[in-house]
Prior knowledge:
- This protein is of the alpha+beta class.
- It has six helices and nine strands.
- The strands form three sheets. Strands 4-5-8-9 form a four-stranded antiparallel beta sheet, covered by helices on one side.
- Strand 2 (36-43) and strand 3 (48-55) form a beta hairpin.
- The protein is elongated.
- It starts with 25 loop residues before the first strand and ends in a 5-residue tail after the last helix.
Amino acid sequence: MKGFSPSPPWGGEGWGEGGKCGAAEISEKIIFTGQEAQLLEESGDQGARVARRAPIDSLLRYVTGVMPAPLPVLPPGTRWLAARKDLLFLVVEHLPQCRSLRGSWGKKGADDYRTYRLAFPYILYLLSFYRGDLQEMKMFYRVSPLTSLGDPLYHTNLPNVRGEPGHYGSQRVCLRYRPEMLEGVPLVEAVPTLIDFFWSTGFNQDIAGSAFERAQGLDPRVASFDSWEAATQQDPLFPLQINWERAEQTIPGLWLECLKLHGDTDQPLASAEELADILYRLPVGY
């Protein structure tokens, strides 16, 4: 048919001379300004137009959903993980069990250590890492498995754990001589090694106002290592029946405390200024 110029199947402007498509090429740009992301389309002589607008925090939530950051292989018992910039926060749960530990009624250097076989309830270990290095480990008890982030946490009753409810360092464990071999070790190996190291160290009365001192009056069965061991022999699950002191914090609250300690927040990125800060932090060649 003379003079017929068919249209392409995608609805463009039609074929020009030489069989070339005459559709205008469209280039796209994303502009971040204030708290908004704008998608600009530039099409030939028509100039640029705003094709879409979206809040920056909504865009980033979607991007992290379709392009999630790769996670490391996690240690056994991991129940929750949170990460932001250089911070990593890990919650590991151990089931009720009996443990052998060395205990002393004296301070470091005393020679009255002996081994006790003691029963424990559910234990949560909360570990924070900054740029791959361990910052601290905290411990809490529970009498049932963790089922939600709002579940209550309870203070422990160990001598090498700091008491003082309400203080940031409450329930922080003493890891004065943590092994340097953890440096550069994958998380899946480092965390179990660290927890085993904690239990293998001797437990003494170095910490004034320890979690053990605070809990001695809760129940006569945990008033001393000897009574604790005797109660363990009678009923290894007795710690699940004790009315442990409830902690003020929850897991999200402890994660927020960790963020604030490093000058950060749990609020999502929502402004061009915050995005620019990330670009400045991004290593060269990343």
